[in-house]
Amino acid sequence: MRFIRGIVRDSITDAPLSHASVSAGKSSRGAITDDNGLFELSVPSAARTMTVSCLGYEKKTVPVNNSSLNLYAVYLLPEVEVLQEVKVRRGRYSKKNNPAVDFVTRLRKSGRLTDPRRNPYYSYRKYQRTTIGLNEFDTVKYSALVRKFPFLVENIDTSEISGQPVLNLIVKEHLSDVYFRRNPEKQQEVSLGYRSDGVDEILDQKSMQVFLDDVLREVDLYQNDVNILQNRFVSPLSAIGPDFYRYYLTDTVKIDGDDCMTLAFYPRNKSMFGFNGHIYVSLADSSMFIRKVDMSVPADINLNFVEKLAISQKYSRGEDGSRLPQSDDMAMELRAVPGTPGVYVRRRIAYAGHSFLPLADSVYDLAGLSCGESLERDSLFWERARLTAIPESENRVGNLMSRLRSVPVYYWGEKFLKIMVSGYVGTGRNSKFDYGPVNTSVSYNTAEGVRLRAGGMTTANLSRRWFGRGYVAYGFRDHKWKYKAEAEYSFRDKEYHSREFPVQSLRLTHMYDLDQIGQHYLYTNADNMFLSLKRMRDTRVTYRRLTSLEWTNEFSNNLSIVLGIRHERQESTCWLPFVDGHGREAGHYSESSVGLQIRYAPGEKYYQTKTHRIPVNLDAPVFQLTHTLALKGVAGSRFNVNKTELSVGKRFWFSAFGYIDCIVGGGHVWSRSPYLNLLIPNVNLSYTIQPESFSLMNPMEFVNDSYVQWFFTYWANGLLFNQIPFVKKARLREVVGFRGVYGHLGRRNNPQYNADLFRFPADACTRPMDRGPYMELSAGIDNILRCLRVDYVWRLTYRSTSYPVDRSGLRVALHFTF
C-alpha cells in the first residue's frame, strides 16, 4: 500500500479544481479534491495509473511512479462544448433546477425498492474485526522503543487513510448471525464467537465491546442520520440533505463491470456534522441501485480527536434486486492533543449467507442468548469463520502482549494503569480480594473533617456465587468509626464481581455512616476526594445505622426488579436535632420498611465498573418507579411512611444540530411522616457539574410531600460557534441547561400543624414553595481544550431570601466526547 498526494488544476487558468474525482487504477479506492484542489489517496502497491475527472473537463489518466515523494500535479483540459456549464457551476450554487438535487431525491425515494428488509424474512452472517494501533510508528522516530522491544516491528501495518506505518496494539473479532422479521417487526443478532487481544485488557472487555459497537456503528445512508462516534451526522440521502449538502453529478465509472453514475456531495458548512464523498449508482435499471459509497469527514469539522475518517461500503445485487451489503469499512486517525502520538482505528464488517427463507418464531426470541456465556473461541474456529483474511501483523497481537509483559517496565506500568482505570488494586495474580475504590481513601467534609477510608471486595476467584464487599472509615473531627459490610449470593455464576449484568442475587447489608440529607450522587461516591471542595458548610447530616436485605432480578431486556426490607436508625447531630412540637428531643428514631423498585430501560447500553454503571449513551428511555412502605409500631417503626416516586428520562436528537437530554419525575407521600422521609430535592454543593441535582439550592431549603421536577440540557454541538470565523477553529460547543422543581407541603406533614412530627432544624432555613417553582438556568461552553465544560448558573427564583443563598456561580466538569 502506498500513499499519494496531489493537486488538480485547470490547464488554461491554472486554477485549482474542487470536487474532482481521483481513482487508482482498477481498484475501488477513490478520493475527491477539496476547495483548494488537493487530494490524498492510498493506493495498492500494484497500481500503475490513476484516473482524474471533473465535470466540464476531459478525463485524464496519469502514471503512478514508485518515487519517494509521491506528489502529483494534474492539469485537466476544459471541454469546449461545456464551457458555459462550467462557468455556471462555478457561480452561486443553487438547489433549484439542479439535476443533482433531483437525482438525490429520486435516489432517496427509491431506497425501498432495493431494501432487503422489504421481504418478510431476511438473515445473514456478519463478521466484524476492529483494529486499534499507534499511528505514524516510524522506526527511526521510535528507535529507542524499538531497541528495547525489537519484536514490535513484526506488528507494523499501514494506515488505509494516510499510508503511514501503524503499530497494531488491539484486535477484536466478533462473529454473529442476524435475523430479521418484518411482521411483527423484530431484528435479532445472535453472537457465535468473540476474540480480543491487546493493551485494552486492563479494561472491562464486555463494556469495551459495547462502547466500540456504539461508537463504530454500521452505516445506513437511507436513514436521515448516520449514527457514529456518539454523534448524528446528516446522511447525504437525508430528507434535509438538499438544505445541508451541495450535490454534483460528475462522471460515469465502472464498478465491478456495472456502469454507474457518480454523485458527489459535501456540506455547505464544513464545520457541521456531515460528509464529503461519492455515491455510485447503477445505470443498469430504474431501481437506482447503489453499488458503492466512499465518504469522509471534512478537515474543518467540529469533531474531537478525529483528524481523518473514511467510510467505504460495497453492495451486490440479489436475485430479487435487493441491495445486499458486502462490506462496511471505517478507518480513522485520531490524536488526543497536537504533538502527541496518533491512534489508528479500523473497523471492517463483512457479510455473507444472505437468505430470505422463513424461520421459526423461536429464532427471534433468543435475546440474551450469550448473556453470561463465554464466547471466546480458539484460533482454529477463527481460521474457519473469518469472512475476510486477517493480516499477520494483526494476528500476532496476542503474542505481542505476552512478550511485552515479560518486560518489567511494561508489566508494572500496565498494573498501575489498571488501578487508575478500575479504581481497585488486586492482591495477587488471580486476586481473590481487590482493595478500593482508591479515590475514596482520603476526603473532607464539615462533620468529619479529614476522613480516611479503607475497603474492598471479593472476586469470583474466591467464589463465583458468594461475594462480599465493605469498608471502614474514620473522621478526625467527629472521632467516629464508620463501616459497611455486604454479603451477596448470586443465583448465577459471575466472571469477576457481583455487579456484572445481569444481577440476580440476594444481598444483605449492614452499615453505619453519615447520611447527607438531600445530597445523593448518581455516578460517584459521596466521599469522593474530588467533591471535598464545597460552596458552603455541609452540615445537613445525620448518622445512620442501616440493615437491609434485597432481592434483585435483572432481565435481558433491561427490566429490573428490586424488592427489599430494611431497618434503619437515624441518629441526630448538633446540626439536625430531632425535636418534636412538644419540645421533646429524641436522640434517634427507628424505621422498618419494605421497598419496591422497578426500572425499565429498553436498549440501554452502559460501561460496567466494579461499583457503578455509567451510560454509554442516553438514547434509550429509562422508566423508574419506586415505592416505600413502613407501618407505625411494626418492627420498631416510630412513624408511617407510604411514598411513591416515578421518573422518565430520554435523549432526543436533532440530527447534526445537537440533542437534548430530558428527565422528568415526580412523587407523593401518602402518609404523615417525618421530614427525613419526605421528598427533598437533590442538591450539589460541589463546584463540579453533577447530573440530576440543583447547583444553587441549599440542602433542605425545600421539603415537600408532593413534587414534580425536570432537568433539560441542550447540547448544540457548535451550532452557533461554527458560524463565527476564527472562533470555529477552537471547536467550541454550546450547552444550555434548564432545571426546576415545584412542590407542596400539605398540612398533614407540616410540623407547624402536627406536634408529633420533628420540627425543621433552624439552621436549615426550610421554607414553603409559595412563590412558584424553583428554577435554575445554565449556559456554558463545552469542549474547551477538548475535555472541559464550564457553565455559568443562575438561580431564577427565590433569589431574595432572609437567609444566604448563591444567586449565580461557575461550575466545571471534565467532559470527553467526540
Report the structural category. mainly beta
The N- and C-terminal alpha carbons lie at a distance of: 29 Å
- Share of β-strand residues: 35-45%
Q: What is the subunit arrangement here?
A: single chain
Give a description of the structure:
- The structure is a single chain.
- The protein is mainly beta and about 800 residues long.
- The chain has 10 helices and 42 strands.
- The two termini are about 30 Å apart.
Write the layout of secondary structure elements.
Blueprint: E1 2-10, E2 21-24, E3 30-32, E4 38-43, E5 49-53, E6 60-63, E7 71-76, H1 83-89, H2 99-109, H3 111-114, E8 121-135, H4 143-148, E9 156-158, E10 165-182, E11 185-198, H5 205-215, E12 225-228, E13 231-234, H6 241-244, E14 245-255, E15 258-267, E16 276-282, E17 290-296, E18 306-317, E19 323-334, E20 343-355, H7 379-385, H8 392-395, H9 397-405, H10 408-422, E21 425-426, E22 433-435, E23 442-445, E24 449-458, E25 466-475, E26 480-490, E27 504-516, E28 541-554, E29 559-571, E30 578-579, E31 585-586, E32 588-600, E33 606-608, E34 613-615, E35 622-630, E36 641-653, E37 659-669, E38 706-715, E39 733-744, E40 774-784, E41 788-795, E42 808-814
Parallel strand pairs: 1-7
Antiparallel strand pairs: 1-4, 2-3, 2-5, 5-6, 8-10, 8-20, 9-10, 10-11, 12-13, 14-15, 15-16, 16-17, 17-18, 18-19, 19-20, 21-22, 22-24, 23-24, 24-25, 25-26, 26-27, 27-28, 28-29, 29-32, 30-31, 32-35, 33-34, 35-36, 36-37, 37-38, 38-39, 39-40, 40-41, 41-42
